[in-house]
Amino acid sequence: MSGIYIHIPFCKQACNYCDFHFSTSLKNKDALIKAILLEIKLRKNYLQDSTIETIYFGGGTPSVLSEKDIFSLLEIIYKQYDVSSCAEITLECNPDDLNDEKLKELKRLEVNRLSIGLQSFNDEELKWMNRVHTAQDSESSVKRAQDKGFENITIDLIYGSKFSNITNWRSSLKKAIQLNVPHISAYNLTIEEKTKLGHDYKYQLEKAIDDEKSAEMFLEMIDVLQKNNFTQYEISNFAKEGFYSIHNSNYWKGKHYIGLGPSAHSFDGASRQWNISNNNLYIKYLNDGTKKFYENEILTETDRYNEYVLLSLRTIWGIDINYLKQSFDNSYVSNFKNQLDKLIKQEKVIIKDNIVTLTEQGKLLADKIASDLFV
Ligand SMILES: C[S@@+](CC[C@H](N)C(=O)[O-])C[C@H]1O[C@@H](n2cnc3c(N)ncnc32)[C@H](O)[C@@H]1O
Ligand code: SF4
């Protein structure tokens, strides 16, 4: 079983924090869709003889696409691949795009999972983020989607901006729970250098909140969501039973996927490939074939080990020592065990049935702990 990711690199406005690949000019939209259709054909053998379990439209903002655009992409995927009849088909949406007509289109297209970027329930903060929508738009978009029969909905939230404190974060979590969605992704605001926020931060026009406050919000979120029947199956992802994201879980479990469109990444078990992050060049190179529209690298054993550690440690499934023993040279396993003893004593990880997972305190330091375990 494998997954397909399609990157739609267009947004109506640039959010002040966002470093994903997108353009706010939609003038090349049709040419770009054509180029993705061509890429799908050219790479038809990338995932060898595999059934497709998930299709994920990410961005950027895939909800800016028309029904015809999405149909043309799905049509060729269905022609070219053996797509499971119960495949999870996710589309990332911005609340302002989710009117009744758009929701009907998505139903007709058999999209069965919506990822809606709410980000915040505070209008002042949404304005500061340069989001297009208000908090009211966000809440009504979720309700409209539910009324149209979408059950599998996830919302994105961001905490840790200068607007957030433990009191309003508690009330945001309450609102998120009241929306009655079965999945929530919540990210600590990262200040990315090449964004407006990164620029303002560098020139001291903006301040970051301190790590202790973010940590308090993170732990509060775990507590509140757990009490409301959500499982934290990955550091930033919480779901009710039966609603884990299959597509993202498969990334973390090391399953294979093909990424289509500018900036998209692919993984076939032995190598990684990433497409050029430039819409015009992506279109040009695909059409005229003068240059490669992607780069790739063969993964070494060390790359594979480090990736396994990094991705698994963040999940509920943890690092499986038996898997390490089966898949890597003994030297990797002994390095792991040496570091593990220290981390257990520091109460950052626990081990049960040969599976290593993070403690609550460890979750605050996940990337650092993973790097301690790297070779
Ligand atoms: C690439 S966006 C696509 C979703 C959609 N365009 C939207 O904005 O709703 C995926 C998610 O990443 C999160 N994100 C992007 N940049 C971030 C940052 N600098 N810090 C924390 N979260 C971020 C946001 O929550 C966003 O919804
Ligand atoms: S957060 Fe979403 S809408 Fe905002 S710029 Fe990034 S991809 Fe576009």
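^ iron/sulfur cluster complex. Residues 17-18, 20, 59, 61, 92, 94, 117, 119, 156, 158, 187, 189-190, 192 surround S-adenosylmethionine (ligand 1) (CB under 6 Å). The longest helix spans residues 211-227.
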